[in-house]
Design a protein that fits this description.
heterodimer; A: 173 residues; mainly alpha; Ferritin; 6 helices; 0% strand; B: 125 residues; alpha+beta; 4-stranded mixed beta sheet; 2 helices; 9 strands; 35% strand; globular
């Protein structure tokens, strides 16, 4: 009995002391890859919108998405280089990319106001999903303080994007 | 003193000439340079920092005609755009720029790229 408690305690302490060894959450290299991929996906979606939409408000929004996500991703690339970390492909990134490719294919079939509504609607949902992942998994799971800080800035930015998309959606109806 | 000395009358003659007018003008200009405080309240420059997706604190006492220096310390491009259209400045990451405050009262402003970023100037006359 005592033996089990001691063992349990030491496992718990090990978990606290060496979170990098834990298998229940992504590593910093994986977190960086997920965050970068999430940004690239939104840039690709915005470029699709810029090639299809004639609505000035939608185009302005898409331009802001390209600019802001590129700014965060440039910082992320500089940070992983500085830290000597190679972003590591993982199941979460792959699932994000697969979902995004399907969404882009579906949006490609739409035009005009139908496209604008679908693009903006997806932006609300997509930012919601990414923000949820940032807040619940990626930020708490990041071990490096600079990576955590950059993810927190990303969350503030993406929450603003989500609200912006929600307002834009209201204006499109 | 009842009598005027020749020296003074000669000086008076000289000073009534164009040279006197020039001397007066130069004196007035020098006075204006030396004493700007005597002029009506000079425009002041107030700084507003933009960082981490927020406008920093706005100055407490802004008067019409004052200048706002907007400093974008963020990694993102932002604008400071008055809702009443009286100013609009677009700043890439790391840039700064000035706008002049026109009119009095409350002037709400926002960032065109991130409409959730808002602030308000309170301007006295």
């Amino acid at each position: 009995m005592i033996h089990k408690i001691v063992l349990g305690c030491s496992v718990a302490m090990l978990g606290l002391a060496t979170p990098a060894l834990a298998h229940d959450g992504p590593s910093d290299a994986q977190i960086a890859h997920i965050a970068y991929t999430a940004g690239e996906i939104d840039i690709a979606a915005a470029k699709q919108a810029l090639s299809k939409s004639h609505n000035q408000q939608v185009r302005d929004f898409a331009e802001a998405m390209v600019r802001d996500h590129a700014a965060v991703n440039d910082k992320a690339l500089a940070l992983v280089k500085k830290l000597g970390v190679s972003p590591e492909a993982n199941a979460t990134s792959a699932a994000l990319s697969k979902g995004a490719a399907e969404k882009m294919a579906a949006l490609a079939k739409l035009n005009g106001a139908a496209f604008d509504r679908a693009y903006v609607g997806n932006e609300i949902a997509y930012h919601g999903t990414v923000n949820q992942a940032l807040a619940s998994t990626l930020i708490p799971g990041a071990h490096n303080a600079e990576l955590k800080s950059l993810l927190e800035t990303g969350l503030t930015l993406f929450q603003e994007h989500q609200k912006h998309a929600e307002h834009l959606s209201g204006a499109l109806k | 003193m009842p009598s005027i000395s020749p020296a003074r009358s000669s000086e008076a003659r000289i000073m009534s000439s164009p040279i006197r007018r020039l001397a007066l003008a130069v004196g007035a200009a020098a006075l204006a340079l030396l004493a700007p405080a005597a002029a009506p309240a000079a425009p002041r420059v107030h700084t507003v920092i933009i960082d981490k997706m927020k406008f920093g604190p706005v100055p407490a006492s802004v008067r019409a005609g004052d200048v706002i220096l907007w400093v974008n310390k963020d990694m993102f491009r932002h604008t400071a755009t008055a809702r009443n259209g009286s100013f609009n400045i677009d700043l890439v990451a790391g840039a700064s720029g000035k706008t002049v405050v026109r009119g009095a009262g409350a002037i709400p402003f926002f960032c065109k790229y991130h409409p959730g970023m808002k602030g308000q100037l309170r301007v006295s006359k």
